[in-house]
Specification:
two-stranded antiparallel sheet; about 15% strand; 2 strands; about 80 residues; alpha+beta; 434 Repressor (Amino-terminal Domain)
């Protein structure tokens, strides 16, 4: 008989600040990509919560690497994977 254990892996959240730094993208470039001013991107990097439309634009522009949960500082939902012991 197999003993099956659940292992939970957490998806690592990525802030907008970390994403832009990791990809070498300037605030101005990212702002143009999502249709806002550079100052808006700067405020978001410093912790301001963006509007729902801007959250969706950030998620789309980062291929969901930066999610609305990341912008709120909420941990992403864990994924569960069963593995045989």
């Amino acid at each position: 008989m197999l003993d099956v254990h659940m292992r939970v892996t957490h998806i690592v959240a990525m802030t907008l600040d970390a994403y832009l730094s990791a990809h070498g993208i300037t605030e101005a470039t990212f702002a143009a990509l999502i249709g806002v001013d550079q100052s808006t991107v700067n405020r978001i990097r410093r912790g301001q919560i963006p509007s729902p439309d801007v959250m969706r634009a950030i998620a789309a522009a980062t291929a969901n690497t930066v999610t609305p949960n990341d912008l709120f500082g909420v941990p992403s939902n864990p994924t569960e994977r069963k593995e045989a012991a």
